[in-house]
Amino acid sequence: MLKKLPKENMGTSNLGWLQSRFHFSFAQYRNPENINFGVLRVLNDDIVHPKSGFEMHPHNDMEIISYVVNGAITHKDSMGNEETLYRGEVQYMSAGTGVMHSEYNHGDEDLRLLQIWIYPPKKALPTLYGSHRFSSEQRADKLLHVVSSQDRNAPIKIYQDVDIFVCETANHMEYNIQEGKQVYFVLIEGLASINGIELSQGDAMELKEEKILHVSPQMLTHFLFIVMNTPN
After folding, report:
1. What does the alpha-carbon distance between residue 146 and residue 134 come to, in Å, rounded to a whole number?
2. Which of 87, 102, 116, 218 has an alpha carbon 20 to 30 Å from 46's alpha carbon atom?
3. Is the pLDDT at 80 greater than 80, yes or no?
4. How would residue 191 be classed by pLDDT, with cut points 50, 70 and 90?
5. What does each C-alpha distance from 135 to 74, 85, 144, 153 come to in angstroms?
6. Lowest mean pLDDT among 22-26, 124-128, 189-193
7. What radius of gyration, in Å, describes the C-alpha atoms of the chain?
8. Which domain does 202 fall in, by range?
9. Are the C-beta atoms of residues 114 and 92 closer than 8 Å to each other?
10. What is the count of structural domains for the chain?
């Protein structure tokens, strides 16, 4: 089963310094029919304007992944971590028992990032923080495995049983979907046909009970998808 999610139907917010598109209910966007997709609770497509950002704020019992599309994000947290990440690089935080952090754009250009929140498998897990500096070559014309569960082999490992892949290509790509898995797909940049359905920049798609994910770009296209267990 395929369900296209056009960006025009998503929730939006404009706070001046921050422009957001909400794939699921978040902040002032409330839709009881659109709370989550499996263990995926939040996917926000954020643009943070220069010299602004998210002040120090708390999180707990959530696994948070930030994927930088353009610009630079500077993270600082109550565990003593502080660093700046750039296009294609990934930051993650399992906020388990609780952590405070801030995220800023100290640069002179807009920061665009995808903020992804995953439900953890249980509450009060030990907090984790980390990042990985992927190169553009690693995601060029191949599916780059950026996030996995602790028992699989992606560079970034979280507690929940998910896999996240990114790619930047103008070529047809395929991914075999295991039985019992579902996929949330995000077209970050470009234009492509996904299993025969056209998506443009900012659109998304839910794939349930599909055996193969087919991505047929019509130009250089940048995408991300999340593989997770289908709920019982």
Report:
1. 8
2. 218
3. no
4. very high
5. 18, 12, 10, 18
6. 124-128
7. 17
8. 2-229
9. no
10. 1
For residue 79 the two structure tokens come to 């565990």
Q: Which two tokens stand for residue 114?
A: 């995808």
Q: What does the chain look like in DSSP terms, one character per residue?
A: -EEEE-GGGSEEEE-SSEEEEESS-BTTB--TT-S-BTTEEEEEEEEE-TTEEEEEEEE-S-EEEEEEEES-EEEEETTS-EEEE-TT-EEEEE-TT-EEEEEEE-SSS-EEEEEEEE--SSSSPPPEEEEE---HHHHBTS-EEEEEETTS--SEEESSSEEEEEEEESS-EEEEPPTTEEEEEEEEESEEEETTEEEETT-EEEE-S-SEEEEEESSSEEEEEEEEEPP-
Is the pLDDT score of 78 beyond 70?
Answer: no
CATH number at residue 28: 2.60.120.10
Sorted by sequence, the CB contacts under 8 Å of residue 61 that are 6+ apart come out as 95, 96, 120, 123, 124, 125
Q: What percentage of the chain has pLDDT greater than the value 70?
A: 93
Q: pLDDT-based confidence at 81, cuts 50/70/90?
A: confident
